Structure formats: C-alpha cells, structure tokens
Amino acid sequence: MKHLINIYFNDNLKSIETFLKTKKLLEQKGFEVCTDFNKKAELNICIGGDGSFIRGVHGSDFSSIPFVGVNTGTLGFFQEINFEHIEKFIDDYINKKYFVEKMRLLECEMRTKDIVFSDKCLNEFVIKSNNSEIIHLEIYIDGNLLETFAGDGLIISTPSGSTAYNMSAGGSIMYPTLKGYQLTPLAPIFSKVYRSISNSIVIPNTSVLKIVPIEDSHKKISFIKDGIENEYKDISYFEFKKSKTMLYKLIFNENWYWINMRDKFL
User: Which of 78, 141, 170, 197 sits most deeply, having the most CB atoms within 10 A of its CB?
Assistant: First the structure.
C-alpha cells in the first residue's frame, strides 16, 4: 500500500511549478499525493507563503498529521524548505532526518446574546472596533480585573504567531515552544481619562484571559481569527485559554528558527 501525502498550494505560478516537481519526486519514491485533505495521509505539505500554511492548517481542521512548509512566497516564516532543496527534503524525510516540533494553539470561547461558540487559531485572535471609534474592553486574568482598555483593539497571539501581526504592533517575540501566549494592545490610550497598559503582556498557558466589551450592546465588534474577519454584536465576553489541540511541524534544521529570524527580519 502506498504512503499518502497531502499537498496544499496556491495559484501562484511558482507554487504550481513547485507542486508539480514535488509530486513527481514523491511519486518516484512510491508515495501517493492527495490535493484534498485525506485523514489517512502521513504528512501535510503546504506550498506557498505563510498564508498557504495557515490555510492548510485550517483546511485540515488542525489535523494531528504533521505539517511542513515549502516556501514560494515573500516572507514564509513557517516555510522551512526552499524550491532548490526539495529533493534533499524528500530524502531527509524518508530517512527520518528531522524532529517534530509541537506548536501551541489558542482557543477562544465567545458568548453573544444568541450563541456560544469556540474556535482555535494558529497565529492570533484580534478584537477591535469595526469603525474608527475607540473600543473599550475590560480585561481579566484568572478572574482578576487587570485594566479597562481604551484604544484600537487587542491582539491575543500564540508563540508561533508572535512574529506576525503581534510583532508589527510592538509585541515581543516568543520562541514557538514557550508555554504561554501574549496580549498586545493596538494604539492604547494613556491620558488623564484613560489608563491603558502600553506594553505586551506574556500570560502563562495555565491562565485564562477574559475580555468583556463595555460598549453599547448594539455596536458591532470585529473579531479576527488568523486573518479571517467576522463582525458580531451583543457580545457578553471573549474567553481565551490554551487549546488542548497541538499542531505538529517537521523541523529539518535545529537552528532553523534563528536562521529564519535573521534572514527574514534583519
């Protein structure tokens, strides 16, 4: 029986070329390639940039099948493999020359007047006003009121997502395996009227973060999950905590994170 591998790719010409090359090489080695998620596969390959990687993760419903990224985009922070190294990557995979990194996910429970639902993210959740007005939010950690925030919004990011929107907003960089998550303010207001913490806060993954909007109940709030935006009103609260679900990523160079940090950002 052939070993199955899922491959996700975008419609960029370089990504299509990379997919065709990868598919051909894998089939020569006896693998069978699926372009739709197959739960019997042993590996998920995401070709493109970070967006393709995130779409592959969400498209597989945060599968426990390991992921690896092949970079054909511009930044590609999740993407370790380059086009010219695909043959070596396949040989290293067959010979098990890799280790598995556990990526921590965040979970959010949101309650409105009508619904309660929960969702997960790989990079971040974002709460902000759906217009140019200031948003006011009460922030609780483990039931303790930390502050009443006033500003553009809040980012709640995973360690692996700390180098995405979080970093652009002035948040700290967290190594992907660190046990915690981060709360980062977007344009916080600090004046005689409002007192908002202006720095990011690293929260242990044993703690629960609760955010309660104190706006007019009919005002809509934008809630963004890994770049996917929805608007809600009549929100009672958002509650964030470490997800029980883990994502698994293959790493072929133990120094890849620091090399990637230098090459992508410096």
Answer: 78
91 is catalytic: no
DSSP string, 155-176: EEE-SGGGGTHHHHTTPPP--T
44 within 8 A of 63, measured Cβ to Cβ: yes
State how far Cα 231 lies from the chain centre.
Answer: 20
Q: How do residues 211-246 score in pLDDT, each as one tens digit?
A: 999 866 557 899 999 999 998 888 999 999 999 999
Can you read off the two tokens belonging to residue 109? 């429970």
Banded model confidence at residue 190, pLDDT cuts 50, 70, 90: confident
Correct CATH for 106-243 of 2.60.200.30, 1.20.1600.10, 3.40.50.1000, 1.20.1640.10: 2.60.200.30
Report, at the CATH architecture level, how domain 3-97 is classified. 3-Layer(aba) Sandwich (3.40)
DSSP conformation letters of 61-76: TS-SS-EEEEE-SS--
Annotated active-site residue in 36, 50, 61, 216 = 50
Dihedral through CA 220, CA 224, CA 228, CA 234, nearest 10?
A: -30
For residue 128, give the 3-state DSSP assignment. Answer: strand
**CA separation, residue 220 to residues 94, 135, 152 (Å):** 51, 10, 14
